[in-house]
Structures are given as C-alpha cells and as structure tokens.
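Please decode residue identities from the backbone states below.
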C-alpha cells in the first residue's frame, strides 16, 4: 500500500466468504476489504498496524482539539486538560506545543507512523518536568550570560 494515497477498498458480499475467503483476506492484507452483509451492515478488514495507527492518531487529534478549547478559558486547572503538564508553560509555549502537535499529527496521519507524535509529547513532557522544579525553572528561564569558558575534553 502506498502511504501517499488511500488504499483501494474491495467490496465483498457475506455470501462471498464461502467461495472467495482467500480473496477477501488478501484484499484486507493489501489495504482494505469491505464486507457487506445482506442487511447492508458493513465490516472493514485492514492490517492491524494501520488500524492502530489511525485509532491513535484520531485519539491524539481529539486530545489536541480538547486542549485548544480548554486553554481558551481563563484559570485553567490541570485536571481539566488532557495534557495536565501544560500548565507549567506560558500561553506562547502552549501555542507552540499545539502547533508542533498539529504538525506531528499531520505527518503521523500521512505516514501511518505515530513516532513524530510520541517524540513531540515526550520532548514537551520532559521539558515540563524540568520546569516543574523551582530551581531548574530559575536556571533554565533566568537571564544568561554570554561568558563561556573553554574546557578540555575529559581524559
């Protein structure tokens, strides 16, 4: 299956399962196979990895949308957010997180690989954890100096 285009969907009738079972399974392995029952009810067969990717991407997308809506309100409590750790960030950082998540979701959707979303979440959660500590926050966000000292490589 090409990751750039949606796979074609072969349509089978329930009665086809007796004589064309292998065709049905083959079509499911190759992309998607639609099984129509006599009452019109439809079932889809597709590779498990693709189904899991689609399910995870849609779940993350919903969490991002919920987060966007909740962050529009003043005085957001951590318990209200799908990503509670976002409360350690200011509004600009939260918007940057949402932009990066939208990009990661777009890539994940088109490639059927949730890696970019997982990486984005991990990186932002790690930063949030560091900023949650008062001393680390002061060091990481405090004014820096342009003075650096050369150090030798460890021997």
């Amino acid at each position: 299956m090409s990751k750039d285009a949606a796979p074609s969907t072969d349509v089978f009738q329930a009665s086809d399962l007796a004589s064309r079972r292998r065709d049905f399974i083959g079509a499911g392995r190759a992309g998607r196979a639609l099984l129509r029952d006599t009452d019109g009810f439809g079932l889809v067969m597709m590779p498990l990895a693709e189904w899991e990717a689609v399910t995870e991407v849609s779940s993350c997308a919903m969490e991002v949308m919920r987060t966007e809506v909740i962050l529009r309100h003043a005085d957001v409590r951590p318990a209200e957010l799908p990503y509670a750790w976002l409360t350690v960030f200011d509004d600009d950082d939260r918007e940057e997180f949402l932009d990066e998540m939208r990009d990661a979701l777009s890539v994940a959707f088109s490639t059927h690989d949730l890696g970019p979303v997982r990486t984005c979440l991990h990186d932002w959660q790690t930063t949030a954890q560091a900023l949650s500590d008062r001393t680390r926050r002061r060091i990481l966000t405090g004014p820096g100096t342009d003075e650096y000292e050369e150090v030798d490589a460890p021997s």
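Observation: The first helix runs from residue 16 to 30.
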